[in-house]
Amino acid sequence: MMNSAITIGTRGSKLALWQANWVKSALLEKSPSLSINLVVIKTKGDKILDAPLASLGGKGLFVKEIEEALLGSRIDLAVHSMKDMPAVIPPGLAVGAIPKREIPYDVLISKHGLRFSELNHGACIGTSSLRRAAQIRHARSDITILPLRGNLDTRLKKLDTANSKLDAIVVAAAGIKRLNLENRITEYLDETIMLPAVGQGALCIECRENDTGVAGILAKLDDPETRTVVMAERAYLNRLGGSCQVPIAGFGKIEKNAFFLSGLVADLDGKTLCRDSHSGPVNLSENIAVMLAERLMAMGADKILEELKSYAQ
């Protein structure tokens, strides 16, 4: 019998709290007798804001401390952005639910309302994502990338500052929509310009593998189509051995009973870019994802990955 009191672990940013409170409301809607409280946990990624994510170890920076609290039974479930999740979940933990995905694309927020193609030669775009930076450089080699860390509010404030060198920033559409800031969006960047990160726009609700009570309740929030697509994207990432230290993008979708996956691996300056797509039956989505990863490696992504790993060391 499951305890009717549940503790949710979350980061403390405005977006993370929105996500955790959304999960809380959704759980209470399904199981009104539950008592749910939130615990804010500060992660390494929240504490160190003056260094690029890639130099700090990449994926896992925003989840490790929360996962440790979950394994130590200090919390009962954790709410993460799926794109922050390492390709492999620690032993003893499980993805209890992946709710319906929000829009997965990236958006450009421009200081003067200029679209990506309209930005002046040499314009400065802020991002600390190697994936975003490489694709921006590939599309427009004249653009200057400035490192930009911090939560969504912080990044918007840095753009808005009067003496800011930034002309625009690129961020995930999902966070902007969840915080009701859509009026700030200058342009949705379609996947021909900016292929999203694996899992972007989706939430990961994590629980202990052996906690059948919590797992049973979380199952009510799971969206089967989103889970199929996102878990395939993660299988692709896992096959590539990807992290925030490597510019990897991957975006899947289901259309007309078929699964489609587009993938990309780039070097840091965006000059060399391996990109391909693969499709097939939905029930073979993870096999399709692994095959796409192997095709990209055969195209030269393996050499890019090796070079970036040695560079990171």
Order of helices and strands: EHEHHEEEEHEHEHEEHHEEEH
Overall form: globular
Question: What is the H level of CATH, i.e. the homologous superfamily of the largest domain?
Answer: Periplasmic binding protein-like II
User: Which whole number gives the mean pLDDT?
Assistant: 91
Largest sheet: 5 strands, mixed
Strand arrangement in the largest pleated sheet: 2-1-3-10-4
How many E-type strands? 13
Supply the CATH class of the largest domain: Alpha Beta
The CATH architecture designation of the largest domain is 3-Layer(aba) Sandwich
What's the CATH topology label of the largest domain? D-Maltodextrin-Binding Protein, domain 2
Strand content: 15-25%
Low-confidence stretches: none
Helical content stands at 25-40%
N-end to C-end Cα span: 48 Å
What class would the helix/strand composition place it in? alpha/beta
Count of spatially separate domains:
3
Radius of gyration using CA atoms only: 19 Å
* Tally of individual helices: 9
